[in-house]
């Protein structure tokens, strides 16, 4: 069995440094065996899907949001190997009223979870929602709930 | 005491088949005694409240979202009779900026929960939010957290 | 150590009466040691950030949303002194597509939590999202998860 940290190395992925918080809150709170992660955008990914951003742009943004969330997760738990499973994502896509493809956008984050944790630990519940606007003009923002390994 | 499954029968409600997922995620994840259900839209319910959909259209959409959520719940637990209580809904309504009636729309889902589970088990916390757009053009999308009976 | 209830008194804050619910749901549900609070807007705070409301207006709205949430929390637990810690906020800001400052708006709520509970109990995970519209025309709506003291 390849561990999530080994898998990251195999994929050639280096997690980014923790982004500065945009306000008066924490990057995560752990309660019992659940880790609640604050919403993360991704630097360099701005604009609205359906207007100045394509679905492929959005997928890359969602993947980068997830890298930021995984950096927070490692910071909280010391190692991604302490993740029991991914429980839930809530993903927001800044978009025009006629945009219909938020699921394909958020799949950029979901697919990375499958690559790193496999289907059993990486499979998760999810909602994908179109937002009028997101902080700093981000095109995607995702929050996550993670179960810590027992 | 009428059980939730008996109550469904009395109401003449047949739960729909599970909708295909719109992306790389699961319909639900159970962690401990909580079941986290992915956001569900409802087929045939498209458009924006305040534009091409009425509040009554929206209520029907929300009720159909809840039927999809209950179908997922039964799939997860084997029977709705294993629901301990409904904990929380997060409901999104695709709408125009001047639309003010998201609560009346989401009540279509909340009222069905009361009919099926009664006030004690069916009463729940809730937020209702206006979204710029929803996946596939859905007019309503709802996610839910359910406590499993001990 | 000053307790949260003492701190409220020192700050000269009186919590408002519970707002009437906008639909067929509860103000909160407790499950285990977690209290899930329904989304709260704030009376007198209507409109869209980026259009007819300033960031400072929004901060005041967010603070008033939090006062409503704290009133619900006291109603649920009997006293704010029974709060173990604040776990998570999900904050929505009704805004125009070009609005970028949702974090500064929701900080109006987060900062009040720090004032009342201090950094250790008041620090929380958070997401701030721009919504097309909110119930009754509210400019801000916030939901919260609170851990109850053991």
Can you characterise this structure?
The longest helix of chain A is centred in the middle third of the chain and has 23 residues, at 55-77. The first copy, chain A, has one domain (4-12, 28-148): 60s Ribosomal Protein L30, Chain: A, CATH 3.30.1330. Chain A has a five-stranded mixed beta sheet with strand order 1-2-5-3-4, with helices on one face. The first copy, chain A, has helices spanning 4-10, 55-77, 102-122; strands spanning 28-31, 34-40, 83-94, 125-131, 140-148. Chain A contains three helices and five strands, in the order H-E-E-H-E-H-E-E. With 150 residues, chain A is of the alpha+beta class. Chain A is globular, with a radius of gyration of 15 Å. Chains in contact: A-B, A-C, B-C.
Secondary structure elements and pairings:
Three copies of one chain form a homotrimer.
Chain A: H1 4-10, E1 28-31, E2 34-40, H2 55-77, E3 83-94, H3 102-122, E4 125-131, E5 140-148
Parallel strand pairs in A: 3-4
Antiparallel strand pairs in A: 1-2, 2-5, 3-5
Helix pairs in contact in A: 1-3, 2-3
Could you provide a short overview of the structure?
Chain A is an alpha+beta fold. Chain A contains three helices and five strands; from the N terminus they run H-E-E-H-E-H-E-E. Chain A has a single domain (4-12, 28-148), classed as 2-Layer Sandwich (60s Ribosomal Protein L30, Chain: A), CATH 3.30.1330.40.
